[in-house]
């Protein structure tokens, strides 16, 4: 591993561009510590100005200076081609990780011209413009926690001990598994730490799994232990805010409507 970058569509299996086929070394460069917040400033008559803030961030754009070094002119050309093939935006959204921050990855794509400056015969300097689809980076480590449901309602903490890592809200999937022997009641999942709550209009049959996806804000069900999933948005109740996880805190949650089963919370910490 060198001072390079890793890229790929699967955060658990990224290609190291410092490898012999690519020869990439990241140069020193400046990056924002946090993406800029969304706000609008305007003059308000009689008030001496005014600012309106939105609850979010502008897109984060990374400008990555790097050098590709080959052993010969033909080797350099081969490495440049290999690097460009991995950075091709036609591949869709990918994850990008820096060696210097190996615990997190940025999801996005090349969003502009990749400049190229020859440095002699066997090296070329490039600058990669990378626009993140989200302003926060994802942890390269996935966290999974299983909570046994043995009471209705059931209150539990995520994580079981300590605090959620990161500096941005985590976006978990909550998989509710009914093993009660009968159909559950209508379900309500609430994070009392954040006040976010989601509910259903009806219960789920014994053996059925219901997935609340906070990133996509959708409901899905599975009758084959998670092998396949079907949309269940018609079962969404009056509470429609699938709970996120607050960073730096122990999150207190309550599930209502199920007497026996489990909840599996799966998430990655996120970093501003």
Structure description:
- The protein is mainly beta and 272 residues long.
- The chain has one helix and 21 strands.
- Strands 1, 2, 3, 6, 7, 8, 9, 10, 11, 13, 16, 17, 18 and 21 form a 14-stranded antiparallel β-sheet that branches. A five-stranded antiparallel β-sheet has the order 12-20-14-15-19, with no helix packed on it. The protein has a two-stranded antiparallel sheet with strand order 4-5.
- The model has no long low-confidence stretch (mean pLDDT 92).
What value does the average pLDDT take? 92
- Distance from first to last alpha carbon: 25 Å
Structural class, judged by helices and strands? mainly beta
Shape: globular
Distinct helical segment count: 1
**What is the alpha-carbon Rg in Å?**
23 Å
> Quick one: how many beta strands?
21
Name the helix and strand elements from N-terminus to C-terminus, one letter apiece: EEEEEEHEEEEEEEEEEEEEEE
Low-confidence stretches: none
In summary, what is this structure?
The protein is mainly beta. The chain is 6% helix and 46% strand.
What descriptors fit this protein?
five-stranded antiparallel β-sheet; 46% strand; 21 strands; mainly beta; 272 residues; single chain
Would you spell out the secondary-structure blueprint of this structure?
Layout: E1 5-8, E2 15-16, E3 24-26, E4 37-42, E5 50-57, E6 61-69, H1 73-87, E7 94-98, E8 104-110, E9 115-118, E10 123-132, E11 137-149, E12 154-158, E13 173-178, E14 188-191, E15 196-200, E16 209-213, E17 218-222, E18 230-231, E19 236-240, E20 251-256, E21 261-271
């Amino acid at each position: 591993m060198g001072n390079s970058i890793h890229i790929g569509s699967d955060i658990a299996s990224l290609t190291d561009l410092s490898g012999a086929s690519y020869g990439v070394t990241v140069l020193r460069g400046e990056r924002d510590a946090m993406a800029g917040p969304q706000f609008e400033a305007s003059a308000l008559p009689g008030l001496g100005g005014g600012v309106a803030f939105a609850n979010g961030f502008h897109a984060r754009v990374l400008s990555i200076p790097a050098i590709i070094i080959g052993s010969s002119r033909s080797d350099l050309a081969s490495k440049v081609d290999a690097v460009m093939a991995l950075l091709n935006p036609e591949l869709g959204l990918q994850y990008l990780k820096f060696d210097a921050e190996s615990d997190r990855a940025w999801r996005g794509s090349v969003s502009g011209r990749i400049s190229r400056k020859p440095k002699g015969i066997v090296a070329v300097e490039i600058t990669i413009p990378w626009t993140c689809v989200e302003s926060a980076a994802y942890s390269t480590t996935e966290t999974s926690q299983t909570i046994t449901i043995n009471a209705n309602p059931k209150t539990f903490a995520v994580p079981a001990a300590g605090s959620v890592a990161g500096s941005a809200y985590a976006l978990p999937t909550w998989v509710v598994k009914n093993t009660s022997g009968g159909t559950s009641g209508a379900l309500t999942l609430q994070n009392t730490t954040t006040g976010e709550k989601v509910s259903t209009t009806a219960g789920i049959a014994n053996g059925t799994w219901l997935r609340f996806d906070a990133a996509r804000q959708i409901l899905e069900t599975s009758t084959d232990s998670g092998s396949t999933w079907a949309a269940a948005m018609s079962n969404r109740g009056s509470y429609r805010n699938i709970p996120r996880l607050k960073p730096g805190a122990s999150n207190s949650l309550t599930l209502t409507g199920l007497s026996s089963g489990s909840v599996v919370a799966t998430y990655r910490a996120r970093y501003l």
